[in-house]
Specification:
Blueprint lengths: L20 E9 L5 E8 L10 H18 L3 E6 L5 E7 L4 H17 L22 H14 L12
Antiparallel strand pairs: 1-2, 2-4, 3-4
Bound molecules: zinc ion (ZN).
Zinc ion binds next to helix 1.
């Protein structure tokens, strides 16, 4: 039997990282030479914190717009099941500094400027669990994450 595939993220020693950070995971190359990059956007320290689902859900909806505006070739930004951060997928390659700066700006908007009108897709038609949003929680956690600073390196603090 073929060996089971091993997702890279399952090899990471989650006790060694220093969140909040952006980590480059890997690139995938398509048959036509296209490159897709995968990043670990870790907002809170694994096994020490987890963003409550309502706040994480609202951050997810907002990053779908805010990161798309800031990262060329944005494909998707989806939350981890452990609620400590997001996977970011992009066409092409970006430095972790560039991604960390885009994430910082996005969280600054959520923390300091966003009103309920800025949260996209919060209706029964446009969301799979529209009752489970909290802009208040999203703002408080964004503020706390920004106070720690976002590092462009997962193991050594290099805040952007
Ligand atoms: Zn939703």
């Amino acid at each position: 039997m073929a060996e089971k595939p091993q997702p890279e993220s399952f090899q990471l020693d989650h006790t060694k990282v220093k969140a909040p950070y952006v980590r480059f995971i890997d690139t995938e190359h398509g048959p036509n030479g296209d490159v897709i990059s995968n990043y670990d956007l870790r907002l809170v320290q694994p096994n020490a914190n987890a963003i409550p689902t309502g706040g994480l859900h609202t951050i997810e909806h907002m990053l779908a717009v805010l990161m798309r505006e800031r990262i060329t070739g944005y494909i998707d930004c989806s939350p981890f099941g452990c609620r400590t951060g997001f996977h970011l997928l992009t066409w092409g390659e970006h430095s972790t500094e560039e991604v960390a700066k885009a994430l910082k700006e996005s969280l600054e908007f959520i923390a300091n400027e966003a009103t309920w009108d800025d949260v996209p897709a919060t209706t029964i038609e446009s969301c799979g669990n529209y009752r489970d949003h909290s802009l208040f929680t999203a703002k408080q956690w964004s503020r706390d994450i920004l106070a720690e600073g976002i590092s462009s390196d997962p193991f050594v603090r290099k805040t952007v």
